[in-house]
Amino acid sequence: MYPKNTWYVACTADELSDKPLGRQICGEKIALYRAQEGRVAAVEDFCPHRGAPLSLGYVENGNLVCGYHGLVMGGDGKTVEMPGQRVRGFPCIKPYAVVERYGFVWVWPGDQAQADPNLIPHLEWAVNEDWAYGGGLFHIGCDYRLMIDNLMDLTHETYVHASSIGQKEIDEAPPVTTVHGDEVVTARHMENIMAPPFWRMALRGNGLADDVPVDRWQICRFTPPSHVLIEVGVAHAGKGGYHAAPQHKASSIVVDFITPETDTSIWYFWGMARNFAAQDQALTESIREGQGKIFSEDLEMLERQQQNLLAHPQRNLLKLNIDAGGVQSRKILERLIAKERAPEAQLIATTVTPA
Prior knowledge:
The protein is of the alpha+beta class. It has 7 helices and 17 strands. Helix 2 runs antiparallel to helix 7 (324-351).
């Protein structure tokens, strides 16, 4: 269902305080916590004594203490001590490679020997003072690929988000999808239209008139395992559209990190990064609030869609030109998953004894 030899966003950095956090990722239950000197650690959320969730315990001296019988677990998956017991023979639990970067905590659920921090994507907007960011987290009961489909085809904005970012001109501008290695790009450009309510607010936030025609763009970029970054914006018409000078436009990057919890549920980390009026905290909060309302409009649709698909697994769904971004993204995922499973399949094939 999902690649495991890759980095997923497990949580935001501020979700980890003085207590451990339990989170299921790609079907694996993980306890995340801050160890010595605030360093992030992650281990299987399973006490080797009686199977209690370690995330219900507490952190002491940089170690994770089980809240059931006091077993002390180190970040390497080995038991450190337990009151009144010798722990040398205790079995190890799985430790996870984990990195805190860009305000997120990234975890590698697969083969730990392959975990390379250099594979975490570079996020310029997270380290550049000319950018501001605000976001949030939703838990959604759907297959992570349904959310990728949703984000790679923004035609639904006309209908699901009619009061905020939707407009009929989206339907009238055909998207163009291209594939570059493991990246899928779906782009849509609209010229000489009126901005919808959300973008009128953004224009005002950048000191621009909001009652004149604009050129609008949506450039959706998927990269494995489930990251979708969307360049969006509007510029006063005739000023160059996407390439307009900063004083003529309001543009942002919609940030979407989709982390599978199970086959039918996800942790959805969303936000918006912008490179105008970056020091305006009130604008950041206003955009975050508006975006949160927009994304919340997707929740019922995706969860009900998932329920329909589970109830009718035999149905073949249509694939239209607007679905190209999601279809190509799934092809990349299928290839990566098959590559991960190839050694396992080869091992099974070599160990099966012919009849």
